[in-house]
Amino acid sequence: MNIRWRAHAYRDGDALFEARVYWDDDRAEPRPGVLVSHAWRGRSDFENGRAEAMARLGYIGFALDLYGKGILGRNNEENQRLMQPFMQDRAKLQQRMKLALAEIRRLPEVDPSRVAATGFCFGGLCVLDLARSGADLRAVASFHGLLDPPGNTAGKRFEGMVLVLHGWDDPMAPPEKVVRLGQELSSMGADWQVHAYGKTLHAFTNPAAADPAHGLMFNALANERSTRALQSFLAEAFW
User: Fold this and answer.
1) Domain boundaries, the chain
2) Residues with Cβ < 8 Å from 201, sequence gap 6 or more?
3) pTM above 0.90, yes or no
4) CATH code for the domain defined by 3-237
């Protein structure tokens, strides 16, 4: 195995974005591609690492960029300012996600008929919105994602698979929102599943999360369980 990466620049009008693409250079055939959507801070080493992990599973990992080249929040206040415009304009968020989807399909290493997306926290909401918009892809997987519906996707269909990996004690997505999401995904015709982990808060995959007073805490066991669940899910989606 020879894992390599490169920067991948793309545009939305005048705005320049920079993703990272990870692949196993020992393989030549087109492979499934997996978008990795970042948390509220922006594309960081965490998402780059998750995209690299996709390459180690035999896929093409694409750590996308929603904010713009070089833009990365330095604290919670900056992170909130970066995320908030997309929370207020979910159509803009969906358009940016569809742009990243089009970009991964353009890569020569990727089989364009086999693409999935995964995301973390804000990124989990982003991949759910990609499904909600009716985008054409095999599957989406949301890790401790925000679950609030966008309000602009009523009547849309998604025939792919959806995996929601959720901390049951996450204060940002309490159980009633999980139930509503299940009802929403059923109405869309999706093949969906929810894995809810007890004694688990928000951001449970992030080793840097250590603020239980605000509902943020790394959970090694939930991280391991959700990682294994994703691997099984993608293997089924790309069968």
Assistant:
1) 3-237
2) 167, 169, 170, 171, 209, 212, 215, 216, 217, 219
3) yes
4) 3.40.50.1820
- Cβ atoms of residues 125 and 147 within 8 Å: yes
Q: What is the pLDDT of residues 49-106, one digit of tens each?
A: 999 999 999 999 999 999 999 999 999 999 999 999 999 999 999 999 999 999 999 9
Distance CA 55, CA 62 (A): 9
In which order are the strands placed within the sheet that holds 60-63? 3-12, 15-24, 60-63, 31-37, 110-120, 139-143, 161-167, 191-197
Q: What is the distance between the alpha carbons of residues 192 and 181, in angstroms, rounded to a whole number?
A: 10
- By the 8 A CB rule, do 19 and 7 touch? yes
What confidence tens digit (pLDDT) does each residue in 117-131 have? 999 999 999 999 999
> Beta partners for 163?
141, 193
Q: Give residue 28's pLDDT.
A: 87
